[in-house]
Amino acid sequence: LSQQGGPGNFLDLQNMQVLAGPQGTLFGRNTTGGAVLLTPKKPTDEFGGWLQGTIGNYDARVIEGAVNLPVVSDKLMVRVAGAYNDRDGYTRDVVWNKDRDDQHWYSGRIGILFRPTERIENYTMVYGSRSSNNGAGLVHKQFNIDGLKAFGLCSDAPGAGAGSCDVYRAVSAQANARGPRQTGFSIDTFSETESWGVSNTTDFELSDELKLRNIASYQRMKLSYRYDSDATILQQHDVDPAVLPAPGQVTLPGAGTPVTYLNATLFKEVPRDNFEQITEELQLQGELLDRRLSFTVGGFYFKQKPSGTQGGSSIVYCPAAFTGFCDSSLTRYGSTQESKALYPQATLDFGVVSPALEGLRLTGGYRQTWDKITGF
């Protein structure tokens, strides 16, 4: 899971650009399927800001705002933006007695623009966000009884007891009787995302025609979650089943057998994603031949690596009769990605050849990328 479209990414934007097709001969990392650029508003030399709030059902509360501060006129400017979003869930978990589908997140950003001279501009942006919720309120519909019987995972034979297919039918009937706004999970699901980062862009005008730009960034992200994909007290596909209902809290419908969970696995639970990322990019930009030739030449470096343990545990399938006794898997993983690239791009206006060709332009670019990915 990535942070694209995550909490706070669309706060106080200057613009959003959707670039179709391959990118990478003009800036940044190589992409073959297009790119979406989100550009935050930079500080300006005017004092001002904005604030807005929203209230709604399910105790929804949203507050967003920004303030622009000119500290030293045309030299040092600061812009601070923040957002807070809180809303109760609209699906009730009757096993865990809590709401699912809730939202709780906040995000903040500060931008500092510094112009020590007319030819030097330095922009630093620091951001952070945190999101936590009780997971999606999945609602169970039915099991594939014929498929379960075909693999011998349940039986309609007399005396099957907890192994009877009636257990699955009863679980589905119980879920359908609750309706679409109630559910009952075997694990206490959740999702938590934390991210923060800092970026710096320095522009140095070498002359009226040439500009040197350096862009550097550092980011951290941590993501943890649990989910119950079948949305029942049965352990059909539970990811990170670390917290389970109390013993005797639930029974197997259709069998009346109390469920005793013996496989709580808190020691196995670690973040799903836990990584850090650095980028460094140096560009030379220019406009020559009376601005009829514009070009960019750059070098790019990217590295992403784990900043801590990543992994998880899951129960891929557990027959209903053994709910609470099946052990979960244990997974630990990590990967490191490193990318280096060189690229040029130029646009020529043929008006440099003849005034009759003014406005006819040709753009060309090239990129060479060296990628290295290791993992376990």
Class by SSE composition: mainly beta
DSSP helical segment count = 2
Q: What is the mean pLDDT? A: 91
Rg estimate, integer Å: 28 Å
Largest sheet: 14 strands, antiparallel
The end-to-end distance, rounded to whole angstroms, is 18 Å
Strand residue content = over 45%
Percent helix range: under 10%
Structural overview:
There is one protein chain. The protein has 376 residues and is mainly β. Helix content is 5%, strand content 51%. The protein contains 2 helices and 23 strands. Strands 3, 4, 5, 8, 9, 11, 12, 13, 16, 17, 19, 21, 22 and 23 form a 14-stranded antiparallel beta sheet that branches.
In summary, what is this structure?
With 376 residues, the chain is mainly beta. It is built from two helices and 23 strands.
Features:
376 residues; mainly beta; 3-stranded mixed β-sheet; 5% helix
SSE topology:
Blueprint: E1 13-19, E2 35-40, E3 48-56, E4 60-72, E5 76-87, E6 91-93, E7 98-100, E8 103-117, E9 120-133, H1 145-150, H2 165-178, E10 182-183, E11 190-205, E12 210-228, E13 238-239, E14 251-252, E15 257-258, E16 273-288, E17 293-306, E18 310-312, E19 314-315, E20 331-333, E21 335-349, E22 361-365, E23 368-375
Parallel strand pairs: 6-10
Antiparallel strand pairs: 1-2, 3-4, 4-5, 5-8, 6-7, 8-9, 9-11, 11-12, 12-13, 12-16, 13-19, 14-15, 16-17, 17-21, 18-20, 21-22, 21-23
